[in-house]
Queue: 2 jobs
Job 1
Amino acid sequence: MVLSVSERTFTQEVLESPIPVLVNFEAPWCGLCRIIHPLLLQFKAQCGDQIKLVGINADDNFKLSTTYRLKSLPTLLLIENGIVRQRLEGFRGREDLLQALEEIKLSYGKHHKVHTNTKTAELGYRLA
């Protein structure tokens, strides 16, 4: 499940989060946003409680969209301790996103010991 965050709850849920947060800026009219949603849920399932996944409606939260200088949707930000660690935008499809999420998992895993079991890893490769 993706937690829906707004400008009102952003500081508490994202900037003050004790764990890294993958922020998905999306909009109801965005077709690619709907396509990547299941992949983000799978990523969250693989990472467990090591990463929080939140969604922000870019149209309804214009101040956040401006603050983070969104150029396209979807835009994903990995925010840790209030700092943007990675920015993912301009996807060309599922494969682009899967590769980017795998890189996050690998780089994050090196520093924070995120472990996935074999069954979870196999699931990720089957979707690609």
Note: Confidence is low (pLDDT under 50) at residues 113-128.
Job 2
Amino acid sequence: MTGKAKPKKHTAKEIAAKVDAATTNRGGGKAGMADRTGQEKGGHAKLECPFCKITAPDLKSMQIHHEARHPKQPFDESKLINLHAGHVAETSKPRPGVRGSFKK
């Protein structure tokens, strides 16, 4: 004999976590394309390689890319293109906190 079939009760925390996971942009697919390429101010990509136009989120990642892909050219931080420099922050759009929650 197996155990009794009891329906599982979902907690409010579990339901809120599922809603958060389903509605928050995690950076994948078409929804995260602008975020990955740095087209918006809050995007992940901050720096762009001047040689191959690939993007990276920080200086260390760009330095690793440069050493791997362009070993013959010297690494110069001043030649990197800052994608966030030309954008103006929008004040009407709320910025998500930790894991996309809007808690204060």
Note: The chain has a mean pLDDT of 77.
